[in-house]
């Protein structure tokens, strides 16, 4: 095998590996974007759930939301959070790309499953000044 053929084969393997990694990165990015927004004009807010011995605390970031429109509903199995945005936001505003320029968002909406020991009948909701919403869900007494 000549030196030229060896270099060509190595470059081809490198190119194939780069293409696989780029394809994987795009697939992961598409999955994240698909899960975080909906064509109906809603976008999923960022949130975190913490567990304590007697309660769960859900912190939801509602940046640019009109918090006066906030609705938090709970069933035995799900927590639903909704709020209008202060203004319509485009896909390109959020993701910094010209792709999806015609996709716009008008409100936040997210449904998350509640743990089996959560007591949705006694939740409390507080909006902090920085538009972080704190939802306290007590645990059922055993």
TrEMBL record:
Originating species: Hyperthermus butylicus (strain DSM 5456 / JCM 9403 / PLM1-5)
Superkingdom, taxonomy of origin: Archaea
Entry-linked CDD domains: ACD_sHsps_p23-like (cd00298)
InterPro entries assigned to the protein according to its UniProt record, in alphabetical order: A-crystallin/Hsp20_dom, HSP20-like_chaperone
Protein name as catalogued: SHSP domain-containing protein
Domain SHSP: 38-142
Family: Belongs to the small heat shock protein (HSP20) family.
């Amino acid at each position: 095998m000549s030196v030229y053929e060896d270099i060509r084969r190595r470059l081809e393997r490198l190119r194939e590996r780069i293409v696989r990694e780029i394809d994987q990165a795009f697939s992961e990015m598409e999955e994240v974007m698909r899960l975080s927004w909906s064509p109906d004009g809603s976008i999923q807010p960022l949130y975190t759930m913490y567990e304590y011995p007697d309660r769960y605390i859900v912190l939801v970031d509602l940046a640019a939301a009109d918090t006066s429109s906030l609705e938090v509903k709970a069933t035995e199995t799900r927590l639903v959070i909704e709020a209008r945005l202060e203004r319509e936001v485009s896909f390109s505003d959020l993701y910094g790309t010209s792709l999806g320029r015609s996709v716009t968002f008008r409100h936040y909406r997210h449904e998350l499953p509640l743990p089996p020991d959560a007591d949705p009948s006694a939740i409390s909701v507080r909006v902090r000044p920085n538009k972080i919403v704190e939802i306290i869900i007590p645990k059922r007494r055993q």
